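can u do me a favor
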């Protein structure tokens, strides 16, 4: 059976998305992860992407990707991966998903994801989509959590586990450190008692 793997860049204080461009006082914090990325980090992210053949996205991430990736040059290899890969978008507000190979998931998300996981193929990657990741972790639907931990505290922004009313224990599968200071954590939820 396929697995659902979530990957996020995250800060020491749990922020995965800094305040947006409308907040001019914090605009300088938009590129918080960039100083910690490197070719070595890119290789890990690319390697993880190659273990999957489908992406699972929330609406906001989907809309951002769908407005960007179809416009990259045809000879961009990563653009080809993004455009040709199967994409599932979870949304309660969208009517249709028009980006190539996109499918809309609405209604009983857990039941729909169970059907998708039962299909033959490689794993399914959640890319970005912090709100979706948090919801799926709460529903015990994430099989692996990959965090790219950046050694920075932002103080504000969207936090992965802000105001949760549940406890999730994780097993550490892999830890890697990079010269940039970033720490890669690969975690699996512990089996429920």
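np, heres the sequence
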């Amino acid at each position: 059976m396929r697995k659902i793997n979530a990957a996020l860049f995250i800060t020491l204080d749990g922020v995965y998305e800094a305040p947006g461009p409308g907040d001019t006082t914090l605009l300088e914090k938009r590129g918080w992860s960039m100083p910690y990325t490197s070719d070595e980090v890119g290789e890990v992210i690319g390697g993880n992407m190659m273990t999957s053949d489908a992406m699972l996205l929330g609406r906001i991430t989907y809309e951002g990707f769908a407005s960007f990736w179809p416009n990259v040059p045809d000879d961009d290899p990563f653009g080809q991966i993004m455009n040709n890969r199967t994409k599932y978008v979870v949304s309660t507000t969208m009517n249709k998903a028009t980006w190539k190979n996109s499918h809309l998931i609405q209604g009983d998300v857990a039941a729909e994801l169970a059907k998708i996981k039962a299909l033959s193929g490689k794993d399914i990657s959640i890319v970005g989509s912090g709100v979706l990741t948090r919801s799926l972790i709460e529903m015990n639907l994430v099989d692996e959590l990959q965090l790219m931990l950046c050694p920075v505290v932002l103080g504000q922004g969207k936090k992965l586990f802000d105001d949760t009313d549940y406890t999730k224990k994780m097993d550490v599968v892999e830890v890697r450190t990079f010269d940039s200071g970033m720490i890669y954590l690969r975690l699996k939820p512990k089996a429920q008692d």
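The first helix runs from residue 39 to 50. hope that helps!!
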